[in-house]
Amino acid sequence: MGNSQIIIREAQIPDDFQNIICLWKSAGPGIHLGDSDSQAEIEKKQLRDPDLFLIAENEGQIVGTVLGGFDGRRGIVYHLAVSDPSRKQGIGERLMTELEERLHLKGCIRSYLLVTQDNQDALDFYLKRGWNKLDLVVMGKDIE
Ligand SMILES: CC(C)(COP(=O)(O)OP(=O)(O)OC[C@H]1O[C@@H](n2cnc3c(N)ncnc32)[C@H](O)[C@@H]1OP(=O)(O)O)[C@@H](O)C(=O)NCCC(=O)NCCS
Fold first, then answer.
1. Ligand 1 neighbour 56 (Cβ under 6 A)
2. Does the model's pTM come out above 0.70?
3. Looking at ligand 1, which atom is closest to the CA of residue 122?
4. Rounded distance from Cα 88 to ligand 1 centre (Å)
5. Is the CB of 31 inside a 6 Å radius of any atom of ligand 1?
6. Residue of 45, 50, 111, 115 whose CA lies nearest to 79
7. How far does residue 103's CA lie from ligand 1's centre (Å)?
C-alpha cells in the first residue's frame, strides 16, 4: 500500500490527544512517555509551536506523529512514531520532511533529537536521512 491517501496535518489538542496517546503507548520502547506527555503539559507545549506538532492521518485514523519545537536557536524533535501496521510506507519520512521544512521556514539552522542507544531501527532511519550522531552526553534535571 502506498501512502498517497495519508494526509499530514497539525495536531489539534485537546481533540486529538487521546488518539495520539494511544499511538504513543503502542509504538514500542522507542517512545518514552513521562510527565511531559500529560494533556495539560501537551496543551502548554501547544501554546509555543502548534505548527510543529504534526500527525499523519489515514481516513480519519491517526497513524503517525512528530512533535517538534524551536527555541530560537535550535530545533528539537520528539516522539516520531508511526503505528506498527503503517510502517515502511514512507510516513515517517513524510512527517520528518514536513517538520524540517517548517523548522527551516522559522529560521532554524540546526536541530537535535534524542534516540535511545538500543533503538537501532530509529538510528538507521535518521542516519540515512542526514542526521549525525554527536559525541555528547545528554544531561537532564527535573526543574521544581
Ligand atoms: C522510526 C519510525 C518512525 C519510522 O517510520 P516509518 O513510517 O516506518 O518510516 P518510513 O516508511 O518513512 O521509512 C522506513 C523504511 O521503510 C522504507 N519504505 C518506505 N516506503 C516503503 C514501501 N512502500 N515499501 C517498502 N519499504 C518502504 C523506507 O525506505 C525506509 O527504509 P530505509 O530507512 O532503509 O530507507 C517507526 O519505525 C517507528 O514508529 N518506530 C517506533 C517509534 C520510535 O522508536 N521512534 C523513534 C523515536 S527517537
1. no
2. yes
3. 1
4. 4
5. yes
6. 115
7. 21
Instruction: Name the helix (H) or strand (E) containing 51.
Output: none
CA distance 86 to 57: 11
- Residue 107: which H helix or E strand, with range? none
Query: What's the pLDDT at 2?
Result: 65
**What digits encode the pLDDT tens for the residues 86-126?**
999 999 999 999 999 999 999 999 999 999 999 999 999 99
C-alpha cell belonging to residue 112:
537535535
Which own/partner contact pairs does 64-69 have at CB distance under 8 Å and 24+ positions apart? 64/6, 64/23, 64/91, 64/92, 64/95, 65/11, 65/20, 65/23, 65/24, 65/95, 66/95, 66/96, 66/99, 67/11, 68/99, 68/102, 68/103, 69/45
The CATH number given to 6-128 is 3.40.630.30
User: Cell numbers of 72, please?
Assistant: 530560537
Phi, psi of 62 (to 5 degrees): -80, 120
Spans of all domains in the chain: 6-128
